Amino acid sequence: MKGPRSVRLEERGSASVELVVLMPLLLLILFSSVQGAVYYHASALAMAAAQEGARAASRENGTLAAGTSAASAFVTDTAGDSLTAVTIRGSRTAAIASITVTGSSLSLVPGWTPTVEQSASLPVERIT
C-alpha cells in the first residue's frame, strides 16, 4: 500500500537544493537594488549641486567662480561619502551659465566605482 508517505520520501532534501539555487539569485537581486538606490542618490546629489552652482553663476552680478564655489560648498555640506572624487567645471557666457558636476558613487562591488555626471544650465539674469 503506497500512500502519500512514499511520495515524501522521494522528495527528501529537495528544499535544500532549492535554497542553494535560489538564495544567490535572491541576494543578487537584493544587492542590485541597493546599488541602484545608492547610485540614484549620488546622481540626485550631483544634480542638486549643479543646479545650486548654476543658480549662483547665473545671477546678474554672478561669476563662474561663484557658481563653482556654490556647487563645491553644496557637495561638501550634503554629500558625505555618497559622492566622492568630485570635479566641478562650468562655463558662463553673456546668455547662459552652465555647471557640470562629476563624481564617484559608493559601490557594493569591490574595485568598481560608478561615475556620476550631472549638468545644469540657466539663462544669465540681466536687466532690460
Structure description:
There is one protein chain. The protein is of the alpha+beta class and 128 residues long. The chain has one domain. The chain has three helices and three strands, in the order αααβββ. The chain has helices spanning 4-10, 14-57, 64-78; strands spanning 83-92, 96-105, 115-123. The longest helix has 44 residues, at 14-57. It is rod-shaped and about 85 Å long.
Set out the fold topology:
Elements: H1 4-10, H2 14-57, H3 64-78, E1 83-92, E2 96-105, E3 115-123
Antiparallel strand pairs: 1-2, 2-3
Helix pairs in contact: 2-3
- Assembly state here? single chain
- Alpha-carbon distance between the termini? 98 Å
- Radius of gyration, in angstroms, nearest whole number: 26 Å
Structural class: alpha+beta
Number of helices: 3
The largest sheet is:
3 strands, antiparallel
The side-by-side strand order for the widest beta sheet comes to: 1-2-3
Strand proportion: 15-25%
How many structurally independent domains? 1
Helix content: 40-55%
Number of strands: 3
Spans where pLDDT lies below 50 across 5 or more residues:
none
Envelope shape: rod-shaped
How confident is the prediction overall: mean pLDDT? 90
Order of H and E elements: HHHEEE
Features:
three-stranded antiparallel beta sheet; alpha+beta; 23% strand; 128 residues; single chain; 3 helices
